[in-house]
Amino acid sequence: MSGHSKWKNIMHKKEKTDAQRAKIFTKIGKEIAVAVKAGGPDPVSNAKLAQLIQKAKQNNVPNDNIERTIKKASSSDAASLEEMRYEGYGPGGVAVIVEAATDNTNRTTPEIRSYFSKYKGNLGTTGCVGYLFEDKGVIMISKEEGYNEDELMEASLEAGANDFVSDEEAYIIYTEDSDLEAVASDLEKAGYKYVSADHDKIPSTYVELTSEDDIKYMNLLIEHLEDNEDVTEVYHNWENCD
């Protein structure tokens, strides 16, 4: 989604109720468990885990919860989670990618398919919309921090960022997907505080919905996908999603 919309989405997530935040904790916990299984429990040697620990802290997940999740995922009797990716179209031809971590694909896949069907979309095959997105690192810094824009841009580019955007309420710094952790770390060492630093999928084209029905059903599709505890991320190319 566009930078401005992404910023609004981040702020919206931070304002969620306790029950909704608990679901966010659960989702991040699943991502951490998958990362530990794939690359081990040490964030120094497991860049993906290090990024997820930072993401957890950004979402106010207590350190004790993070440590328990890593320890549990490292044990031999930890639940086996499988990473799944679903691609399809929402109403009006909006491209949608859904990432999930599940211990039961026979439960998760029908649920995802039912959301697409119920809300005027259709679940496609892997790859049907993936080519419309590019993997990027995205760092968001609030303008409320009061940083000098030119100095921040210079520091970002020197750290390895490949694009810098000044939006209404935030600075959006884009990096190569593999460079996110290094750039975020360098900015932090330089004294800059960021709201989020995430791996993202940036659309090459956007779809604008004009039908009230399409807008209603697209909102419902996103809401139900994000509410599903197996779903870890939802990406789409809907332009007007504030």
User: Element order, helices and strands?
Assistant: HHHHEEHEEHEEHEHE
Q: Total number of β-strand segments?
A: 8
In the predicted model, the low-confidence regions spanning at least 5 consecutive residues are: none
Distance between the termini: 10 Å
Spatial order of the strands in the main sheet? 3-1-2-8
Q: Give the overall average pLDDT.
A: 88
Query: For the CA atoms, what is the radius of gyration?
Result: 18 Å
* Beta content: 15-25%
Fraction of helical residues: 40-55%
The main sheet comes to: 4 strands, antiparallel
Shape: globular
Q: What structural class results from the helix and strand content?
A: alpha+beta
Number of helices: 8
What is the secondary structure topology, with strand pairs?
Layout: H1 3-14, H2 18-39, H3 47-58, H4 63-74, E1 82-89, E2 95-102, H5 105-118, E3 122-123, E4 133-142, H6 149-159, E5 163-166, E6 170-176, H7 180-189, E7 196-203, H8 212-227, E8 231-236
Antiparallel strand pairs: 1-2, 1-3, 2-8, 4-6, 4-7, 5-6
Helix pairs in contact: 2-3, 2-4
